[in-house]
Write a structure and sequence with these properties.
alpha/beta; about 45% helix; Rossmann fold; 2 domains; seven-stranded mixed sheet
Length: about 220
Amino acid sequence: MSGKNEASNKVKKNKTTKAWITEHVNDAYVQRARAEGWRSRAAFKLTEVDDQDKLLKSGMTVVDLGSAPGSWSQVAARRISPGGRLIALDLLPMEAVHGVEFIQGDFREAEVLQKLTDTLNGRQVDLVLSDMAPNMSGIGVVDQARVMLLAELTLEFCVAHLRKGGAMLVKVFQGDGFMELRRDLQQQFQTLQMRKPAASRNRSAEIYLLARNKKA
């Protein structure tokens, strides 16, 4: 029986993978991203939020967490020029983006966080972007805890390095810890809003929390 179950699970996994590939290839945002030179369809998520909320302005200092493959960095770097500075960080390698300083490492590690802090060299940040997501295990409780940890670490970074009046945009999944994170954000920022860009697939549980006007 165990052999049959293993074979059945393998078939299901292969079907799911093929279905995802077919959907991805035919996705309008994927096709548009290729046509316009963006590294992934995620570029349109940040573009939509920024078009609505006017977060990115020339001359800003921006930190992009979970930046690979680089589409958010592409969008942000263009919109903060001239005079802007963008520091991107990811566990995975990222091909160079013009105007972007990249740090490869795990944001959860103190050594990597210190390297990011050293790169800022005392300069306060105007905007923190975080599209970070952990490697998913498929175990809902575990994955939710990992997602919320990344969001909480992003908030801690903002408390330390975001200027008064600054903003953060962070990806989260609704579930355990979500309301607690909302409460913590409301303590640190004047306003808090939720965003679900059109480029975020409907079946995805992801949403973006936009916190603006950091308190003193």
